[in-house]
């Protein structure tokens, strides 16, 4: 029984094993046939895990991509992955192979890490609102101008470099958006070598123009047109060398623009106004292509003429001149292309030496059509518009009386034929001085304006200035100074005495040459050494009391009068009027003290002529009958010619004062006839001499101004030391 049961289970087991083996064979055949099927694909475990892992990471990547700005970056050819690399091969069927297409070379900007923040602007944003502006500033402080324009009108927060001190003159009228007005204001500030730039947090900064390169906002090409103030653009070049590109775009930028070359990355950092930077980017976009790698080229700006017309004329000139007939040259290796958008000429050639020839011809041909009547405005920089307009009227046929008129018309035949100046004009010239903007408006032909503007530039120069230092001192004449300073110096020179700090050639020679004659009672001397001047003051201080009344410095303009006044106003009664109410006294004030008037005249050789007038007045005694004071006046007027840096000594203005004092036994000395037995009276004469030490120094450059400031500071310190010793 037991064996049957066991045998039945064995049969069932064999059947089950056979069934499993058959199923396994069927599955194996199916899996083996799958790779050869054209309509179905399968995935291995590793591939499924890989795709599952990628799918789990893709939402995070997509979310990060939405937050990043979409900025195109340039990579060099060495950084790009070749199209046939394994990372770039698409997994496609052998029947459909895709063709690799290389993108064309493009010039794209790079964002630089700079002071400021680059913010791409949306083109679909609402337009900026306009504000009507009516402003007029005449020599106004820059802080006042910025407060009115930026803060009050447009609610713009701004910062100003504390070292900036400037005055601004301009007028503006019309409707402006915020961006347009900032550009207008930036143009005005550039006249003072300043610039307005946008910093982080929409806070604008006013900085010096040379410092704006490190302060402006880096922008994208789409922002260039609407960006206010100065902008900075960084561009990486693909084919052009940075030095070559910089030389070609500089003529199209402003005078104070910044172009920084980075030879390591072969890139440029350009800082200028938005319009000029946009113009430079257009030039680089055209030229930074592979075509210009092995040839010579240059972009020449055309300032006055039309670029298209000049290109035609220039080709004809070069052909006529036999350029194409020279050995090794042909018309296929030379091309001139006008660029209308920037009014320039692109010259491409296989011969670098030709570019200099073309540049010379462009300079000679770059002239506007001078035959038509146009309106020109000349902004006066240093003089006044009314004075310059009056000079032009007199020069070209008008008269001085015509300066009262706002407009004057000069005709070619207005002047006599003997002068020849009016005959140089080709037509009528209308001259209108604008006092508000300190400008002159001309209505004339281009040829006539070019002739007149050349004269204006020679007249409109920076006026020469003279820094005049004056030391006013009063010397008490006693002992060896009893007869005055002039006799004291001559006596010391004859006795062989040398003043401490005198010149190497001795005191006698200097004094004999320096001391001259002036008005009656006035001594004049010239000294070339600051040390001699110090020695003179020291010697005078040793012999008598010296009192430095004043040591002013005044900066005078050439041919303009300057006045130095040191003193006080004294009330003087001029009359009395008795009324029912009471007595009314009339009082006027009179100036007393030192009054020095100087008018410098500078010639081209460095000599300075000074028209000098000096007056010293002081309050005298009071008349008991008239109830009025007397005044003691000492005046001198002269003209001197000295060299730049010399010191002139003026003396001889003396004053004698009689002082009477009494001494003795009180009460007894006052007894009539017998009082002299118990006391007496003493009379003493105090003599003083007023001296002036005047040193003019002409100023032409900043370095001269710094040197003069240092020297005069030393003089002031020396005078202070003398005063301390006397105290």
From TrEMBL:
Domain of life: Bacteria
Stretches that traverse the bilayer: 12-34
GO cellular component: cell outer membrane; type II protein secretion system complex
Gene3D superfamilies named in the record: 3.30.1370.120, 3.55.50.30
Coiled-coil regions, chain positions: none
Any GO BP: protein secretion by the type II secretion system
Domain NolW-like: 232-289, 299-368, 375-465
UniProt-listed Pfam families: Secretin, Secretin_N, type_II_gspD_N0
Domain Type II/III secretion system secretin-like residues, every copy: 539-699
Keywords: Cell outer membrane, Membrane, Protein transport, Signal, Transmembrane, Transmembrane beta strand, Transmembrane helix, Transport
Segments of this protein annotated with the region Disordered: 50-69, 76-107
Subcellular location as annotated: Cell outer membrane
GspD-like N0 domain location: 136-206
Record-stated family: Belongs to the bacterial secretin family. GSP D subfamily.
Protein name per UniProt: Putative General secretion pathway protein D
Organism of provenance: uncultured Desulfobacterium sp
